[in-house]
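seq/struct pair 1
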Amino acid sequence: MFDFITTWIAAGGAFAVAALMFLENVFPPIPSELVMPLAGYNAATGSSGPVLTFIGGVIGSVAGAWLWYEVGRRLGRERIMDWVDRHGRWLTLDRHSIEHALDWFDRHGAAAVFFGRMIPTVRTLISVPAGLQNMPLGRFLVYTTAGSVIWVGALFGAGYVLESQYERVQGWLNPVTNGIIAVIVLLYLWRVFRGKGRKRTG
């Protein structure tokens, strides 16, 4: 899997990284913690340009966040809750997750958007309440981009530095990568078939 992803990123360059990071924000089982370090490694080996690869990662991350912002802004609270009741299972979302994100946004505002970009799962959810509460788009994009630059940069930098040590880790990196993906997929399937996202009663 490591070889497959790095080859794909090398072939598609910044566009492939941007697409993967966009999907990571839309479809949670695709982890940026895996994509960006591998993109950084590829850039360090010369397979792709580091600056464009990093920018692609940031653009994809921000674009995915903006999509959820628009979903929240256009649908409104009641419609998005009804949508989550019907379809949230496949994104492992439920009313409680949205309400928790709304509460956090109400208490922290712009800081929630900024720091939320660096917290797994939250970085997908936090864009919804920003849209629901009609946070100005320009302000949302500024804080989202700032948080994404830090998060993407840290992961990209880790992979970039790893290149110099690749000979030491190449024997176990591929199976570890496969193991991470397997765990993520199994966790996702467990959450889906457990019924997370169905309307709570009581």
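seq/struct pair 2
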Amino acid sequence: MSKAQPHKARKRFGQNFLHDMGIIRRIVACIAPKEGQRVVEIGPGKGALTEGIISATKSMDVVELDRDLIPILKVNLFKYPDLRVHEADAMKFDFRQLATEGNIRVVGNLPYNISTPLIFHLLEQADVIDDMHFMLQKEVVDRLAARPGDSLYGRLSVMAQYFCSVESLFIVGPDSFDPPPKVDSAIVRMTPYTTLPVVAHDLKGLEDTVRIGFQQRRKTLRNNYKGTLTAEELESIQIDPTLRPERLDVPDFVRIANYLHEKKAL
């Protein structure tokens, strides 16, 4: 990789540049990119992870918001003419436009300050994504992968696991970054289902059902759904109204959402 001018990480973009080559090689091994695959990287920074991927795929798309990083990235990766740089906000980017000849793969060291809404944005486009590999704050990865009964199991867990199989791969310490963050990071693999295990009749209805269910997580379902569902209605769909929301799995929330959808249609 050629050397470009130094670039100071910007707090407003949540930038922490990965520099540990051992970790970079381990991430690339987990992704296992192959020539011809359409890989899209969010926030490539100076291209440390990008080079490990594009050396295998030969072409690649990257989405970068910081315009000052783009010339640095192009200099560092000058020997890869098929690097396509999109100067854009990933939160507003239409990833579907890149899936013109088949599904895409998405990777990135995501800014911690927008990681959750960005994941929700990507889940809305999960039908054109084969898999996603992200570096995230460890707590966010733990929330994504949490199972019913876990203390971190919540809205993000349910919605991510509705669309995807979620695997926490390994932890990355602060010293692997410049500047080092104040928390541990982790790598997560999210693989969208080709066929959803359970299907919500109305996705917005499922999102609302999950949000209401977790709005007061220490209260029971009977209390959280008060005014929306009676205890008897919950029992009629095999949901115990005395449970707290973190005890329900994804099919349980889908069952509640579908019941409410059918009730509204009456």
